[in-house]
Design goal:
112 residues; mainly alpha
Length: 112
Amino acid sequence: IDLRLPGDDRAIQVALALLEHPADKRTLPEWGREVGASARTLARGFLAGTGMPFGRWRTLLRLQAALPGLAAGEPVATLARRAGYDTASAFVAAFRRETGSTPAGYFRDAAG
């Protein structure tokens, strides 16, 4: 799961905070108040710097953060909560949408 960081100073502040705490559920307006930018400015910063909208970027960040635990065989439900998902099924759905495979299938295919 490839993930680029945005170049905008305020968007990078948000990105670095989320790298530290992927489960943080703050919205772009909430982040904007935190870093002194509008939600629209942050949205533009993420799109211009990463080539994707903030929501998709955050999804990929959360999935990327879970990969080491998945590789180590940790329970999906535990990793899902740690990554900011309310349920394991929501995590698995996001994983499948982004990778084309379930977490178990992803590592089975990689070992292939």
